[in-house]
Amino acid sequence: MARKQPPRIIVGVDGSRASIEALREAQELAVPLGATVEAWTCWEFPIGYEAYLAMGVDGFARPAEESLEVAVRKAFGPEQPRNVVSRLVHGPARSSLIEASRKALLLVVGRRGHGGFKGQLLGSVSSACVAHAHCPVLVVHAAEKGQHDGSQPSPPVRKTKDLAS
To answer: Of the candidates 108, 67, 102, which has an alpha carbon nearest to the alpha carbon of residue 86?
Structure first.
């Protein structure tokens, strides 16, 4: 008899305050559901990377990997919860997260990431996920300035309704 996999909650993580809060929120929801939280950081080769082929392209993923490690540490402190796994994904964040949502219970993203349009209510990745994901999407706001400095784990900014009920 095949063992059933626990449900998956996928979190888009770009290192922004909102994505760190998204990780915390996903963990709070995952515990009562017995779900695994997958912290996804997506990366792509820079435009014109072909010029670097002669020197090697191995180092392009490293900054994304470091950003993911820092974000998980900021969200949870030195002890990463056992149900949280990190995934470094080569590909555009929008399409990668949307495709992953096909096999997820929930997709969690920050309201805005590191994009350059400060006046937008939603960032481009979160907007695309809300519009095209194949599962429910939770969009999380960052903690208010001064409420949490990112150096220690903190409780989620707001409580959410338990998905199990």
So the answer is: 67
